[in-house]
Amino acid sequence: MKRAAHGWIALRAYKLIDDISVNGRIGNVRHTDKLIELLSYYLSGVWDGAWIPDSLICDMKYGHIFKQTNDPKILGSKSKDKRSQAPYKELKSILKGKRLCLERLKKEEVLNEHYWSEEGHLPDRVIALTHTVSDMLKLGDFPLAFYLREQRREAYEGDLSAAGVKNLSLSPTFSARQIATTLFMLSHYIADAHMPLHCDYRDYSRRNKIRPMSPRLHPSIEEEWEKSFPKEKMLGIGKYSKDSVDDIVLNLPKNSIIETDKYKLSASAAGLKKSNDNVWEEMVNICRVSYALSRTWIDKENTKENQEAGYDDVRELIKRKGKEEFIDVTNQIFHDAVESVARIWLLVWGKFIKKPKILFIANKDKYHMEVHQDTCPWLGLVKKSNKIRFTNLIDAHKQGFDNCAHCIGGSKR
Q1: Closest by alpha carbon to 147, among 362, 365, 353, 367?
Q2: C-beta separation of 72 from 66 below 8 A
Q3: Can you give the residue range of the structural domain that contains 366?
Q4: Quick count: other Cβ atoms within 10 Å of Cβ 154?
Q5: Per-residue pLDDT tens for 289-325?
Q6: Is residue 209 in some structural domain?
Q7: Which H or E run includes 40?
Q8: Residue among 1, 88, 9, 81 nearest 296 (CA)
């Protein structure tokens, strides 16, 4: 996919999370309003952030692909390995939520074949970035952790709960801007997994071998898609407002083939239900679906006997397969890409925003008024009716509780 497509997917995933978030929650994921707020201040960076993998990192030869094949001569012993086979029912049970591309392949025999990757590390790239974002959130400066996670183990002099995410760009460690940019980068790799030819070994040059697909086909499809999305002038949001995001992601160019009304995104948390916490497995299975889609959609290829049997470029693909099919497949691909980005963003966020742990328990008896660590042995002498639970010391101090000299220290009595 090209630059405008990647920028649009990231913005559309942002809007999807914003739309289905109810009281700051999507399913079991809490504080989704904080995720939206964090990203909202840096939406002007979508155009650059979602393109960094291509413009700066430049790991296209391995990080953006997961080229698979069903050729037994290439697979060798893998062709008999059960792990190289993923029928529709198995994928359906693993990949939760709406998966239009998978449903398109429901009756296709290709999903019953054995196939596996020969080139590329795209799932590894995605799992690495998800861990990076998670670690950046944990290692962010104190105001960021305070504002988002609401868990503090130590007392600080000032109460920074009113600090806005926008002011955290000067963080000495990881700032909100850096975290937002990394999430936009992550969206690029997730989206690439949905481009069928990123997952098809037929679209790969091999030494002394006939390339089954024309080298013009892949870029020409992406160039055709690019016509359907807003350019930099539209994607560069200077100041966040819901109306401006709506305008950009919904008011597409007149010649756009993206049909947002026909291929509607999920309207509730059920559609973004996570498959599991294993992002690598999620990405491998997304790539499996993309490979199978490539095999059924681009069903002709060049052979040794006839090197012109396949589709030369997107114009020939549309001419021989029909424009209606091209539009249909395109919309299913981008629908699934947007939902996958939103789903994995929420998975990363959910691991960071966990239900605050009870770290401290105070004794509200007026003759004691002390706060203890939840493991303090003196709590055994406190009546159950006098116990008050806290996730941090700051809130306990605000209510007039002094530190226990035994487990915390620093008592002012």
Answers
A1: 353
A2: no
A3: 360-403
A4: 9
A5: 999 999 999 988 777 777 677 788 999 999 999 999 9
A6: yes
A7: helix 32-40
A8: 88
